[in-house]
Give the backbone structure.
Amino acid sequence: MSDKIGIGLLGLGTVGSGIIHILEHHKKELMAKTGAADVDIRRVLVRDLEKQRDGHVNRDLYTTRAEEVLEDPNIDLVVEVMGGVEEARQYIEKALKNRKHIVTANKDLMALHGDELLALADRQNCELLYEASVAGGIPILRSLTEGLASDRITKMIGIVNGTTNYMLTKMTQEELSYDEALQQAQELGFAESDPTADVEGLDAARKMVILARLGFYASVQLDEVHLKGMTAVTAEDIAFGQQLGYTLKLIGLAERNEEGVEVSVEPVFIPDSHPLASVHDEYNAVYVYGEAVGETMFYGPGAGSLPTATAVVSDVVSVIRQIRLGTAKAEVNLSADEETVLKKDEDIYAKYFIRLHAHDVAGAFKKITSVFTSNKVSFEKLIQLPLDSTDLAEVAMVTHETSRSSLEKISDDLASLDVVETVKSRYRVEGGEVDVPEQRDLALV
Amino acid sequence: MSDKIGIGLLGLGTVGSGIIHILEHHKKELMAKTGAADVDIRRVLVRDLEKQRDGHVNRDLYTTRAEEVLEDPNIDLVVEVMGGVEEARQYIEKALKNRKHIVTANKDLMALHGDELLALADRQNCELLYEASVAGGIPILRSLTEGLASDRITKMIGIVNGTTNYMLTKMTQEELSYDEALQQAQELGFAESDPTADVEGLDAARKMVILARLGFYASVQLDEVHLKGMTAVTAEDIAFGQQLGYTLKLIGLAERNEEGVEVSVEPVFIPDSHPLASVHDEYNAVYVYGEAVGETMFYGPGAGSLPTATAVVSDVVSVIRQIRLGTAKAEVNLSADEETVLKKDEDIYAKYFIRLHAHDVAGAFKKITSVFTSNKVSFEKLIQLPLDSTDLAEVAMVTHETSRSSLEKISDDLASLDVVETVKSRYRVEGGEVDVPEQRDLALV
């Protein structure tokens, strides 16, 4: 058991500098917590030796040659905060082959290549931790693996993308359109000039793949995530949901039962009174259902260099403890245990919100309800508003639980009715019942 | 370093049985996580040997003689879940003197005697962990000491008592009176027949003393907590706050800055849009401000035997790791570092909500505002409603930040005005600005 721990750092951007800052300012606590006699940064891979940087790390430690980190026998633990996928993967593989433990904040890498890298770490008897890769400042992964270690997680519902949550908050509170909200997010730096990965739900999907692995020990591939972004969300959908007592959020969901595992990312209506509905702006939160503990939620900043650096250092502390305990790779062994079965669409049950434009004629109500009856699905809520200066009525309803495949069928059946002009939108509903102010239960006459 | 860990259990109620259940069902994971070759329950102190109990622990392990747990050289770790203060304290002291590590779920004990027991543990080179003593199911203490280990916590605002949160939720959502809410809570088993410890804020104060110790390494005594219960809260206060965009919660607050530490428990108005405002019914949550990580929140069930047992087992895992790392008592050393200075009332700044009945006569507004002007405090919000069939008007206002001592002065000055009939109530306001729907900013004419 080694008492001196050598760290090699790949990347020295804002997160890397934050890590160095924390490691230096909390050295005493780190040593006390881990029982290590010394924790030292021994090499730092940078792209440019000459660039001026904040922080106090000795410039002699800088190198532009990755081998000097990956092959240095004095380095026990490699911290990867360089980002990108291909290069980072090669470096981590090489480090693992040289029996170095890894801490990474790289969500793209872990979502795409997590399984193979964890398997390699396992074979090499090394630890690979990645708390910082999901929801930066929220100690969610640590809580899943430590605090709730003796529980069984059955479901996680998360707001895990700050950009889209900022946009949806603005669309809800200030009734902005999608385009206006996107523009505002871009102006404030919350959205990239190409926002695809955020608004299409890809970023959230990557995080859910990682959460499913940590929470369920499940191996789900990115292309197995049921994915629907928020580009089609309208201010009308949001306003209509509000009349029924719901707030719209882009939700990453992971659930398991006897039939298997489901991972999805889509816009979902949440009751206003549910804690997730109060997660505003760029904040993130994950709502966790555990068999013993019941319902818990972890809330915090989803990103940011200091929160991410804090999470990386927590992982570093864990790895050092594992090294000293001789338990490194215990987590990995656990995660390889189960064969992951994905749930089929007919086994995925949820409530749904459906909004449509119907012709305001006698018998319309009967035809619409008969679609639900013939598909053996009832609905718990229905609201109708006349549309200005047309013969159309706007109808929104919330079904009882039904399978994803039934929903498709109902949606098609409704669209084919002569009294239905258009099925405008449909959204999954999660988070339990709405606290019902009775007047909301209007009936279609 | 020992590879076989012997556990002695004090108490076998629902929490104790839950612990045995978890330890048996997760033995493999526990051994993998801690690197221990064996984790075994070796003795269980019970009051009655003959009582039938659920669970599978070998009845030969039962004893009614505490020494058989406290003096057994094969026991490394004593888990105290018997409750009560005096007896539990004596047992823990004796166990520590015999150099056994301790895990306890006993909040009363830790709030009253935490300092001395931690000091004793320190001298004996033993670990004393008490995660389960605060907010059972929320991994808040673990997060404070582990996940946020490398951060500096500056403030914690918590809903840490399920009984009072249940009552306030009913008073808010269903407009129940205090008495009706209490009766309902008692009928449902959320409140004791003598609810004093809950409604007077004592239970919350105990938890805040523990949180301040964990988050700030501060030693605050129970009688140093600024304490105001919820017995004087009326449905009118709650309704008036709602009109200004606030929800009333019984809040435990701990804050530190250069001037010192403040710990309080009192009913506080929180903006409706703040995540704490959505913590309903018997749920608990703690909102934490960290210098690096920013704002995070931990939410979950505040009590319950399975959540508490889960938290106890997490502490057991930590202690076993510490034993094996040789770092036991590291946390305790840290907590003894700082000399705790309590903030004075003139250094405790907050916004306040004040509600009063004023005579609806010319010049009333001027006299009321002049009290604020002469005390150099401005207010950011004011609402007035006429009272039915009287010449009185109901006035509520929210001040800008002012010291606790100024507030006393303002309150006295207002009460002495001839145009003020009564100062009905005043509450602290926390959690930032209300998202302002403009029409709420009504002016007194």
User: Anything to note?
Assistant: Confidence is low (pLDDT under 50) at residues 330-337, 436-445 of chain B. Chain B touches chain A through 60 residues (CB under 8 Å). The longest helix of chain B spans residues 305-325. The first strand of chain B starts at residue 4 and ends at 10.
